[in-house]
Write a structure and sequence with these properties.
Layout: H1 12-28, H2 34-43, H3 50-57, H4 62-65, H5 81-101, E1 119-121, E2 126-128, H6 137-152, E3 153-156, E4 197-198, E5 203-204, H7 206-212, H8 215-222, E6 234-237, H9 247-262, H10 281-284, H11 290-300, H12 307-312, H13 331-336, H14 341-346, H15 361-371, H16 374-395, H17 403-420, E7 444-451, E8 458-467, E9 472-482, H18 487-504, E10 509-514, H19 517-525, H20 534-544, E11 549-554, H21 561-567, E12 574-577
Parallel strand pairs: 7-10, 10-11
Antiparallel strand pairs: 1-2, 3-6, 4-5, 7-8, 8-9, 9-12
Helix pairs in contact: 15-16, 16-17, 18-20
């Protein structure tokens, strides 16, 4: 082989050097010569005949393609697995895009000018986004209830590290859960609620609060209990005592909001959607059996299973009355016309004018109340209830009462009911006076209480420990905290204060006793709660584990008199000792 200078080379190493140098120069150049490329290709001996090459260029037929059936299966981690995943993902994305183009799926937009998103694919997950054309009643209810859910959610403060004082709803106020104070422009501090908590005492930093926030917000902040450093902030539902969402509380919150915004009379609150103009007390306070009051309420809402109502709900095919066969069977038709009821109202003792027409059962009842005496009005309501039951008997093949027999039966029914419900005056027993009892041996009993000094934003927590071995009070303490929380929150704080002091005194067996039933029941349950004092419960659960025995009990105020008087003391910040003050020794 000749080298680049035209000299003939026969040695093997020389030939290898010529070939290596040529290809290095060929593949390193940025603009190879086409003639040189053709020269290289011409020197390559073809291994595939021209006929075979032409056959390979033809497209595959259905018979040649076939299907691949793996015999051992394909598992995650197999070298072929990523390729299979990519193929499936490409097919899925193509099907989604086709569905979007044909209008079967509708993506979502996070803003009016943002692009529509129908899917997001990740390495191990795929998210689909679509708005349905005809969402179910459940989804429609969730979407409609979402604004009311947001209005009732707020943050319960634990350590305050996860809550913004400016952006998050965290204040306990029926009007607004957010601040009225404007955030300072010149400074980003305080950025967290934890910034306005005094870490040394675990209470609100009053000087900072008075410096930064408006007067309208200061009292709202100081009314909120503060948890320990370990207690986390939580989302809670404001309109339930437990802090947990309930459909009932949300429903009543919606109805009360509609009543307030509609400007209607507060005495005329409704108990059903859109019925805020009806004074339901007309029914609920009537001296008749509860089942009749409930029946009349259902009748006023037009939800009795009459033929007209069943037809409206597409349950029945015809609204014609099954008894008379002439008119559409509505509630008023059953009460006023059908089965001889028209004669009942025209005769004694009612003597009503049958020519008057009514638009609803509610109008009918209001008319009866207006034109009839009280006792006759009650009889008319019982007759209305009995007319429906007689209608049901006839529809199911039994014989029902009509005319004078029906009115006579209703009179006897009212007399029997009034005789059975005559109030019997029972002499009131004197209330039980609770007595404080000492604890068993080797156990320390800790009584606690909280008080709120008149006209001051502070909370006084008191406790006293008593041991049967010592035969007297072995420790007492009164501590002042800034703020003015609710009574139950203050009592819960007092319980935590007593538990912490007992831990510091290294009492192994204790029994905590207080006069707030709600906080004691929460302590006995030992479950985390989303209530206002739920942050204290978290601390109870962790501290109580350090004792050999830790029990909680409830006692009335008369059995907790010493702790109550201690909480009423006038202190500067903290007063404690092992000997009771002289003026309190009488209560020991």
């Amino acid at each position: 082989m000749k080298d680049s200078q035209g000299i003939w080379r026969e040695k093997r190493e020389d030939i290898e050097g010529i070939i290596s140098g040529y290809f290095n120069h060929f593949f390193q150049t940025t603009n190879p010569d086409e003639q040189e490329i053709d020269m290289v290709l011409d020197q390559i001996e073809p291994r595939v005949p021209i006929e075979a090459n032409q056959m390979l260029s033809l497209p595959f037929t259905a018979d040649e393609f076939g299907s691949v059936i793996p015999s051992r299966g394909l598992r995650q981690g197999d070298p072929v697995f990523p390729y299979l995943f990519i193929c499936c993902a490409e097919v899925l994305i193509s099907m989604i895009n086709k569905a979007v183009e044909e209008g079967e799926l509708r993506g979502i937009k996070i803003a009016p000018t943002a692009p529509t998103i129908s899917n997001l694919c990740f390495a191990d997950d795929t998210l689909l986004f679509s708005l349905g054309h005809c969402p179910s009643a459940t989804w429609q209810s969730l979407i409609k209830a979402r604004p009311y859910l947001l209005k009732g959610l707020r943050r319960r403060i634990g350590n305050g590290k996860d809550t913004s004082p400016w952006a998050d709803p965290w204040l306990v106020d029926e009007g607004s859960f957010k601040m009225f104070t404007r955030r300072p422009i010149e400074s980003a501090w305080p950025d967290r609620v934890a910034d306005i908590i005094d870490k040394s005492i675990g209470a609100w930093d009053v000087p900072i609060i008075e410096e930064i926030f408006w007067p309208i917000d200061r009292g709202r902040i100081l009314s909120i209990p503060v948890g320990s450093r370990e207690a986390s902030d939580r989302w809670v539902w404001h309109y339930s005592g437990s802090g947990k969402f309930t459909v009932r509380s949300c429903y009543h919150n919606i109805i009360s909001g509609q009543t307030l915004t509609s400007g209607s009379n507060p005495e005329c609150k409704g108990s059903s959607s859109g019925e805020v103009d009806r004074n339901w007390n007309v029914l609920w306070h009537l001296p008749i059996p509860p089942k009749i009051r409930v029946f009349l309420w259902r009748a006023c809402l037009e939800i009795l299973p009459t033929q007209a109502e069943l037809t409206r709900r597409r349950i029945s095919q015809s609204a014609v009355c099954n008894i008379c066969g002439y008119e559409s069977e509505t509630s008023l038709h059953v009460f006023m016309v059908c089965n001889g009821m028209e004669r009942v109202w025209k005769n004694s003792p009612f003597e009503l004018n049958g020519s008057k027409h009514f638009g609803s059962t509610w109008e009918w009842i209001k008319y009866l109340q207006m034109v009839l005496p009280k006792n006759t009005f009650l009889l008319a309501l019982v007759v209305t209830w009995a007319a429906w039951h007689q209608r049901n008997k006839i529809v199911h093949g039994d014989n029902g009462l009509t005319g004078e027999d029906l009115v006579s039966w209703c009179r006897n029914f009212i007399v029997d009911f009034q005789r059975e419900t005559q109030l019997t005056i029972i002499p009131r027993r004197p209330s039980h006076i609770a007595v404080w009892n000492p604890p068993p041996e080797e156990e320390v009993k800790v009584n606690f209480d909280a008080s709120f000094p008149m006209g001051k934003l502070r909370l006084l927590l008191s406790l006293h420990g008593w041991s049967k071995l010592e035969g007297e009070c072995i420790w007492w303490s009164v501590t002042e905290y800034p703020g003015r929380p609710r009574s139950v929150d203050g009592e819960a704080h007092a319980a935590l204060h007593a538990l912490t002091k007992a831990q510091g005194k290294r009492w192994s067996k204790i029994k905590l006793e207080g006069d707030c039933l709600q906080s004691i029941m929460a302590l006995k349950g030992g479950e985390l709660t989303e209530s206002s004092f739920g942050a204290y419960i978290e601390d109870y659960c962790s501290i109580a584990k350090t004792f050999v025995s830790c029990q909680f009990s409830f006692v009335k105020r008369s059995g907790n008199i010493l702790a109550h008087h201690l909480a009423s003391m006038s202190v500067s910040s903290c007063t404690e000792g092992d000997v009771l003050p002289a003026f309190l020794a009488l209560f020991n």
